[in-house]
Amino acid sequence: MSVFTTVSFEQMQQWLKGYALGELLDLQGIASGITNTNYFVTTTSGRYVLTLFEEHSAEELPNFLNLMTHLAERGIPCPHPVKDKTGAALGELNGKPAALVSCLAGKSLETATPQHCAEIGTVLARMHVAGASFKADMSNLRCQRWRVATAAKVAPFLQAENRQMLDAQLAFEQAFDTSALPRGVIHADLFRDNVLMDGDKVGGVIDFYYACQDVLLYDIAIAVNDWCVNPDGSLDAVRVQALLNAYHAERPLGADEHQAWPGMLRVAAMRFWLSRLNDLHFPQAGELTHAKDPAYFEHILRNSIEKREQLLGNWVN
Ligand SMILES: Nc1ncnc2c1ncn2[C@@H]1O[C@H](COP(=O)(O)OP(=O)(O)OP(=O)(O)O)[C@@H](O)[C@H]1O
Ligand SMILES: N[C@@H](CCO)C(=O)O
Q1: 228-254 as b/e, with b when 16 or more CB fall inside 10 Å?
Q2: What pTM value is reported for the model?
Q3: Which tens digit of pLDDT belongs to each residue from 164-181?
Q4: Which residues span the domain enclosing 87?
Q5: Ligand 2 atom at minimum distance from 194 CA
Q6: Which of 67, 102, 137 is the last residue of a domain?
Q7: Which of 65, 75, 121, 138 is the S-S candidate for 212 at Cβ 3.0 to 4.6 Å?
Q8: What is an example of a GO molecular function annotated in this UniProt entry (predicted)?
């Protein structure tokens, strides 16, 4: 159950007086989710999601909310923050920063088909194009410096073979020059559990709280490493092709991006291998136990290193 901070019906009624959303009809805690407190809020004007931010400070949040507003206003299926009567999207409820956003249709998928992957490719490319006009300073907190520092923390917990892979990957990243690749605002966590699928269509992309400015191809690699992976950590060529082709149709990928693709898949796998190792070995005090299995990304990274030529393969039309 992921209601860490309880909000009563009466408190919500009171809070809604600051909004032009009509009267509260229903308030339901959302069981899934592991970081924030979320509620479905139904009023006489529609259905919304209330988020009480359990980890981010009020200073960090405006960029994310502004980004969602920017993307939603450009037709990207993502939560649209609702402004209160003073024009603010971020408020405070029960001592936590809080926001109301539009409620999107759909639910996240366990398994993705090539058709789903194509949908994701299209939405991701449109998000990158729409994000180009968003101006804000949002650095990637999971950057190479973070990867080097985190690798040093988790290395002592690894068996020799994995430690070798970690060192080899760090050396690879040191020499991997991505500075000339197209950059922009990226979601940086576009896993299946952050996308609500409404039938075969994307109902909405959620969880923009890792969004930052970085290499666009990196965002594609993050998505491919989740949406197009077989249980053994290898990539399913059909799903990869579907995602890349659909992306390419919206934002054509360049020869430099083609060249960098196998390396980018490695970097994307490394980032999540490291964060999962870090969460496992250094859990935050008071945090819900939710460490995800690092071995999953260990296999994906190993596959990316061993299958380099195949990954470059047949790419886009
Ligand atoms: N805008 C939305 N529209 C519809 N459903 C939503 C929306 N935002 C969140 N949800 C629902 O709430 C659930 C929990 O949200 P989310 O995954 O963002 O939780 P979190 O704790 O904030 O983040 P995380 O679990 O990724 O750390 C989602 O799986 C989804 O079912
Ligand atoms: N999507 C991440 C968790 C949030 O960053 C993972 O599966 O490891």
Answers
A1: bbeeebbbbeebbbbbbbbbbeebebe
A2: 0.95
A3: 999 999 999 999 999 999
A4: 9-102
A5: 1
A6: 102
A7: 138
A8: homoserine kinase activity
